[in-house]
Amino acid sequence: MLSVRLWVPESDHDSKAVACIANKIVSLYGSSITIQLADKQGFNRAIHSKNQDGLKKAVNIYLKNDDLVIFLLDSDGIESQNQRRKEKNSLVNRIEEVVKLSEGRVKYFPMIQELEAWLLVDYLGICCFFTKNADHRNHPEWIKFAKSKQRGQTDLIAEAESGGRGVKECLVKLSREILIKHNPNLQDKPKNLKEREYEESQSSKIAEYIKIDYQTLRRNKSLSEFAKCLQQLVDDTKQVLLDDIN
User: Fold this and answer.
1) What is the pLDDT of residues 20-43, one digit of tens each?
2) What separation, in Å, do the N-terminal and C-terminal C-alpha atoms of the chain show?
3) What global pTM score does this model have?
């Protein structure tokens, strides 16, 4: 069985969310690839100034047991990626250096417009999370509500200006609308509403409610590219099995 190690070095919350989504992608393609996680603390140790070639060494240790290591970073878009590449010791440059030396066994995927853009591919799933009712996925009223709010390409959600509204703010706004629809009284209780709206620590729990299928994957280019990478592994695994049988 193939093993894939996911490394989301900026946030362990995001890491768990990505792992949840990855497992759903693997399930969609009909395979039993094992998804493993590396953590933020381990990454920080690996890139410490006292640890020469620490990231490369850490990756090589994982590759003794894992078939592939995939790095994923939040990205605000092409300009943000280009800016990171101009910074000699940026995370992107350090990771891409390891990717170049890996002979295809290490890959890097930017999460365009951040992890929240991956969660926003399924507004109905987000509705189910904030109402704590998975049955809403089959409820006509909630289906209609989610469709009226659902964005098309979620990787195109961008801040109009620096410090303005982006994907996180979009998800916060959506969470407030869902909470008010579920309980109209919250509209008159801003403090209670504030306490229940989206925050980053909820990302992995929301991911559990997100539906991953061919339609939702198409709503975010970077998510789709990540899925294609996992699909290729699935296809390669099936081909190996067929070759063994023959």
Assistant:
1) 999 999 999 887 789 999 999 999
2) 19
3) 0.88
